[in-house]
Amino acid sequence: MSDFALRQEAGGLRSLVDFYVTTMRTSIQQGFQYRAAHYMYMLGMVAEPVIYLVVWSTIAEQSGGSVNGLTPGYFAAYYIVWTLVRNMNIVFTPYGWEWRIREGELSGQLLRPLHPIHHDLAWFAGWKVVVIVLWLPIAVALSLLFDPTFDVRPIEIVVFAIAIWGAYLIRSFNQSALGMITFWTTRVGAIFQLYIMFELLLSGRLVPLQLMPNWVETLAWFLPFRWTFFFPIQALVGDLSDQELLVGLAMQVFWICVGILIFSLAWRKAIRRYSAVAG
Amino acid sequence: MEPAVHVEGLLKVFDVPERDEGLKAATKSLVRRKTREVRAVDGISFEVAPGEIVGFLGPNGAGKTTTLKMLSGLLYPSGGDARVLGHVPSKRERAFLSRIALVMGNRNQLQWDLPALDSYELNRAIYRIPREDFVPVRDELIELLEIGDLVRKPVRQLSLGERMKAEIVGSLLHRPQVLFLDEPTIGLDVTMQKRIREFVARYRQRHEATVMLTSHYMADVEALCERVVVIHHGRILFDGHLSELSDTFAAWKTIAVALENGAGDLSGYGEVVHRDGDLVTLRVPKAETARVTARLLAEQEVLDLNVEDPPIEDVIELVFAQEASE
Known about the structure:
The structure holds two protein chains of two kinds.
Chain A: H1 3-8, H2 12-33, H3 35-62, H4 72-88, H5 94-102, H6 105-110, H7 116-146, H8 154-179, H9 189-202, H10 214-221, H11 230-237, H12 242-273
Helix pairs in contact in A: 2-7, 3-4, 3-7, 4-7, 4-11, 5-8, 7-8, 8-11, 8-12
Chain B: E1 5-17, H1 23-31, E2 35-48, E3 53-57, H2 64-71, E4 79-84, H3 94-97, E5 100-104, H4 116-126, H5 131-144, H6 160-172, E6 178-182, H7 190-207, E7 210-214, H8 218-224, E8 227-232, E9 235-241, H9 242-249, E10 252-259, E11 271-276, E12 279-285, H10 289-299, E13 302-308, H11 312-325
Parallel strand pairs in B: 3-7, 3-8, 5-6, 6-7
Antiparallel strand pairs in B: 1-2, 1-4, 8-9, 10-12, 10-13, 11-12
Helix pairs in contact in B: 4-6
């Protein structure tokens, strides 16, 4: 082996960090290059929480100022934070895996001495930096319009900052694990839509979970969805104790580990089936 | 010396779903799905020595690309044994992937919206290339392929040929010791094809790299490969020196003859395959070549005469035709 090849072997972790930093930087560059398109996309995405916000605020006002103790100020804060959490939760989807296999893009990635998931994680993480910058003016505008109630402690800000990345990882591994189905069928859409339906109901994306029946809230506690939307939002907007905040982070770690495990097992089976249909 | 590539009884079988046309067949396939077994690669064996360059020839669907994909770790073999630089490709070990490259002429591996330089930087991080090695290697490749002006443009704005050259630079930054080239000159103009051929030859010579090449352009094979492996229906039909190919498969030679006073009827000497003014090309059985040449020289007023092996394209076509008729 040449000296050159030998030198590549050294410094595993440092090289991985270098890869993440380089990929994120490239992704940020591309994100800012297409900033107008991203902005339009984000503005379009704001429509969903604004509808929820207007509906729940109206109901709260008509119910004497609150629903289940949740005020219009709480709903405003919840759905404004929602807009950031939703954008942080955008990950490489099963549709992406379907496209990647169908178009033969996966072949190029498999030739690299690094698992493709690292590219996905780093690329979308870089894009989040662009998202956060673009989100700030949207948050200011929504705050001026809807008058949110925030009563935030420093620890809640710290936990929120960690939890949005935890949510990102849970969702990345879950959706990549679902993406493995595309190695068996090239039409993953139906299964993915079923997943999204459960997520809508059990994550707090559609409705804050306090407004769901008790059994739904209990069920949600034992599933990953809650820890990707409701927990990060509540960390900032709700009134969680320090213990609840730490338990939430622990649950995120647990679901990240479960996601990695399922994805790894599925990957090992799936890659043997890869037939590089399109080159 | 251990071979760079060792293949023994390599097999790849695909289960391909199939059904007849029409609604009835579609409905039937809901209940009972019919599949057909396709042996894309059917138990082939060969070896490639370190530093050797081998042309892999065959018609579309012969199994060339499938073989290269198994050797580069993209596809999992259905059977047999493959080793590249001592590694089992399907294990896809980091040490293996860091020492090979597969360049596919119809595939884009660079970031579409960004200048190629950004993709190269990404490859530096992926292949863990020390920066002090990366910059001179990158600049050397850019210079060799003459794309200094292009690497700062978004890849989407490059022409096919320019993009191919940029792709090749990206694939070789980690200085692979084994290079699998799958139709690297497809769709390129003649000048660009020549540049890429020259570059491959120079890269191989400079870095003592092993190269396996598939191409439909015989010019690529003739310029680069002394040894060819001919594959058809997943099986190897020939493995040897390029010149032996016509000796083995072509039962004739061509005689190009220019005559002093115009060409009359030369059909008595052999099959007339081409006629252009005074210049006639004859096809004669190999064993008859010497006798026919002597007769032509004795009986005609010959200005010029050349005895040649048939064009390699014709030989390859003949090989496949023979296989099909068996």
